[in-house]
Automatic annotation (TrEMBL):
Belongs to the acetyltransferase family. RimJ subfamily. It comes from the Bacteria. The keyword Acyltransferase applies. It comes from Gelidibacter pelagius. This is GNAT family N-acetyltransferase. Keywords: Acyltransferase, Transferase. Residues 10-151 form the N-acetyltransferase domain. Coiled coil: none annotated. SUPFAM superfamilies: Acyl-CoA N-acyltransferases (Nat).
């Protein structure tokens, strides 16, 4: 476990998380499909989620990508996930992607989880700059970035291509220990 509060815990993804992770992703497909299409595609069934966890565990061992799971402290539910990706170890930089289930949105939990995960990543992995990319219409994600201490850096043209849509401009937010 990398973090614990009265409401939730955060830990690295583990094989025992398969059922609850699959439940989170499948039950929130409509919310997550636009910005997490690859993750959803890799988790359509319980078996595919087990395979996803195996791949992501190996990826973490190789320090290529890390998946953190947010567990509700009062149930067995996984309420969200944070993916640390696009790691550049020379630049000491990485990017967060995240999602939270519809039952838990709007409560400030993801902002607290991003802050906690940022602290862990900086202290334990040695990263110095963390990024969040969000579309301008995804106000909950933008608010999470800002409340987590990330600062807007600019707009990246045609940065992300959702399924069956034209490429989207994305807003870049960064948190750096240098500033």
């Amino acid at each position: 476990m990398i973090y614990s509060s009265d409401l939730f815990t955060i830990s690295l993804l583990k094989p025992k998380d398969a059922l609850q992770l699959n439940k989170l992703l499948v039950s929130n497909t409509d919310r997550f499909i636009r910005f997490l299409p690859k993750t959803l595609e890799e988790n359509t069934t319980l078996e595919s989620t087990r395979n996803y966890i195996q791949r992501k565990t190996k990826s973490a061992e190789k320090r290529n990508e890390f998946v953190f799971i947010i567990h509700d402290k009062h149930s067995i539910d996984i309420i969200g996930m944070i993916i640390l990706k696009n790691l550049d170890w020379k630049a000491k930089q990485g990017e967060f992607a995240y999602c939270i289930g519809k039952r838990f949105k709007g409560k400030g939990l993801m902002s607290k989880a991003i802050k906690a995960t940022s602290n862990y990543v900086i202290k334990n992995l040695g990263l110095e700059t963390l990024q969040i990319l969000s579309h301008k219409t995804n106000l909950p994600s933008i608010n999470t970035a800002i409340r987590s201490g990330f600062k807007w850096q600019g707009t990246l043209k045609d940065e992300f291509k959702p399924l069956n849509e034209a490429p989207l401009d994305m807003e870049l937010f960064e948190y750096s220990i240098a500033t």
